[in-house]
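Posting this for the archive.
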Amino acid sequence: YAPSASGGAGTDFGMVIRTDQTTISKLVVRGDNNRSASGSAIQALTAHGGKPIGLRLLNNHVLGARVDLSGFSSPYSTGNNF
């Protein structure tokens, strides 16, 4: 993400996951600690209000962005850096 991407008042997303039984492997999100005009951090991974089940996160890297796993039902995570 470039600093110019943070000009809006909303939130920027890397990936919004709403599908059950999803596997994300070797994803790299570089948020560079950018924020929107309202101060919101980039959401690298989120369900954004959904309630998907069976998420598997394997060997992913998120740098300078937020990972929100609160909407997922029993996510499995290994080898990640966030």
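The chain has no helices and eight strands. The beta strands are 13-16, 23-25, 28-30, 43-46, 56-58, 61-63, 66-67, 76-78.
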